[in-house]
Specification:
- This protein is of the alpha+beta class.
- It contains nine helices and 18 strands.
- Helix 1 packs antiparallel against helix 2.
């Protein structure tokens, strides 16, 4: 049904879908940027532009920025990016309304204003930005498989950007062009990193095709013998990184008396399949993503030298991406959510006034009044449910 603002104008199209699965992890005050497939050959400076914007978010914000989160997922005609910065301080709540500079001179709240400004300054005008809320529930309760980039060797750091190219986020997106996936990064700039590194980067990748899900111990035993069907972290291997899945797999053996059973290596800290299946599938990393945590479990920390990556500013180009892909069709249309349900959906629309959702203080962004198709993952029975432009 069409909705109006009382003046006869039509700010968007609202529908009445089933509500998003409730979570406590929704990300508010997020900047969305869609890179359409039509710009695949005309916009090739995304890694550089994104790196400059990230560096400026940390250095030019009027308040201290603790970390920046990035979410990337495929849509029917390109890639959607979402950025959210966090500050460690408590700010005044007296500003009840949030308005865009496009509407008047009232600023957005920090650090949203800095994120919006830095991305606007670096990205082409053709890339339209929106501000709103990303409901984490749209990605469902669990992925089919989740992986995290880690470093195994004590003295090894990632290869520099000017030494290795083509083993980066954009390469990952190309490798997964036919896949429903979520790419998640947390960028931090803590003080006193070793060897004068500037950034700590936590990278997680999730796949949602149920065929990748390990359901039984015998399936995992076959995986250990033959290798996983897909470990998305391999796209970064030329940087010298490893996958959390590979590290965990190396800590298990197939029993020689029964090739359908696996046993953990002594002193690995890992347990039997029935007790550690969430770790084997990477579901524990999905929980960390939902919570916005950059730390890893003690077990993974003991198995690796680094569970986050150390990077200099130029090395952020490995991870920010801002490229695009041209999927042959909507990659989410056949994904059942959450992997054991019979429902399949394929769209999420950014609405000016989404129904069936708790309302936050209004965010009157003049540029966001027109409804745009986001095609967020259909994992939880969402058909045209709104990303809140609150």
């Amino acid at each position: 049904m069409a909705t109006t603002d009382g003046s006869g104008s039509n700010p968007g199209i609202a529908v009445s879908p089933p509500p998003v699965e409730e979570t406590n992890f929704d990300r508010e005050k997020v900047v969305f940027v869609k890179v359409p497939a039509s710009m695949e050959t005309t916009f090739d400076t995304g890694p550089t532009k994104g790196t400059i914007a990230l560096a400026d978010i940390f250095t030019q914000s009027r308040i201290e920025v603790d970390d920046v989160e990035q979410f990337t997922w495929p849509v029917a005609d390109g890639l959607m990016y979402a950025f959210r910065a966090y500050d460690p301080t408590v700010q005044s709540t007296t500003q009840a309304r949030v308005q865009s500079r496009g509407a008047d001179d009232d600023p957005l709240p920090e650090p949203l204003q800095t994120v919006y400004d830095t991305l606007s300054a670096e990205l082409p005008d053709a890339l339209k930005m929106r501000a709103g809320t990303l409901p984490i529930g749209v990605f469902g309760r669990k992925p089919a498989v989740g992986s995290r980039l880690v470093m195994v060797n004590d003295n090894q750091k990632i290869a520099g950007r000017k030494k290795v190219s083509g083993a980066d986020a954009n390469a990952l997106f190309e490798d997964l062009a036919d896949e429903p996936f979520l790419y998640h990064v947390i960028y931090r700039r803590p003080e006193k990193l070793p060897e004068k590194y500037e950034y700590q980067v936590t990278v997680r990748i999730f796949l949602f095709d149920p065929t990748y899900r390990i359901r039984s111990e015998s399936e995992y035993a076959q995986c250990l013998r033959m290798g996983r069907r897909c470990d998305p972290a391999e796209s970064f291997a030329e940087l010298g990184t490893s996958s959390s899945l590979a590290v965990i797999d190396d800590a298990y053996n197939v029993r020689w008396l029964d090739d359908d059973e696996v046993t953990p290596i002594r002193d690995s800290g890992l347990s039997w399949f029935s007790s550690d299946r969430d770790r084997i599938r990477g579901e524990t990393e999905f929980v960390g993503m939902c919570r916005g945590q950059y730390g890893a479990s003690d077990i993974l920390e003991d198995l690796c030298s680094y569970t986050s990556l150390l990077a200099r500013e130029v090395d952020l180009e490995h991870f920010v991406g801002l490229g695009t892909i041209d999927p042959p069709e909507n990659p989410w249309q056949d994904v059942r959510g959450p992997l054991d349900s019979t429902s399949t959906m394929s769209g999420l629309t950014l609405l000016s006034s989404p129904p069936n959702r708790p309302q936050s203080p209004p965010m009157n962004l003049s540029r966001t009044q027109n409804s745009i198709k986001l095609d967020l993952p259909p994992m939880t029975g969402l058909w045209n449910t709104g990303v809140r432009s609150n």
